[in-house]
Amino acid sequence: MSSPGDFYRSLPPVTKAYGTLCFLTTVAYQLHLLNPEWIYLDFALVTKKFQIWRLFTNFFFLGGFSMAFGIRILMIARYGVQLEQGPFAKRTADFLWMMIVSMITCLVISLTVPFFNSIFMGGSLVFMLLYVWSREFPSSKVSLMGLVSLQGFWLPWALLLVNTMFGAPLMSDLLGIIVGHAYYFLAVLHPRATGQDYLKTPAWVYPLNYFMLPRNIVF
């Protein structure tokens, strides 16, 4: 049986980096080393005080230690890992580009559509991963809370319903579904039908692979 350290080292680089950043951000918050006010999204602070980091850091906070936080981390560890090791195997740059495009899309929608405005969009990014996974593994059997078995295709909608019933913000998860669908349509369905790929990974993303290699990531 492999140790937790072996399991961690076996994780694909982008998912491992994102999951670790989310976990460490919450740990820092719980230890009172990090004030969420330092990292939340505020377009006024970005444009007027040039606090550019807020465009990225808001995606790394999934809240304090709670069941909701644990579920989000497990979603990254399961669905993000399966995506990166499956359809995106040996395509680290493409997976990273998907994350970048999705973050930009979340920011644009949050800025232009008032009821999707949010100061933290980590949950939306996690739900984006889940949605893309559900399209790549539509026939996979999934157990929902150990009570209901359903196909992977329906999992995002089932979790959206369950989360809403338990009081989770509807718009955060729904934004992730919308962003995931937009990405999957433009990156997979449209190129498959027309041969035109509008979301082809740009050349500048590929050198970032060097920094994503496991031996170069030190936590």
From TrEMBL:
GO CC annotation terms, alphabetical: endoplasmic reticulum membrane
Matching Pfam families: DER1
Transmembrane segments: 17-34, 55-77, 97-130, 142-160, 166-186
Family of the protein in this entry: Belongs to the derlin family.
Subcellular location, record wording: Endoplasmic reticulum membrane
Record's function text: May be involved in the degradation process of specific misfolded endoplasmic reticulum (ER) luminal proteins.
Record keyword Heme present: no
Membrane disposition: Multi-pass membrane protein
Keywords assigned by UniProt, alphabetized: Endoplasmic reticulum, Membrane, Transmembrane, Transmembrane helix
Coiled-coil boundaries: none
Classification via InterPro entries: DER1, Rhomboid-like_sf
Protein name (record): Derlin
A biological process from GO: response to stress
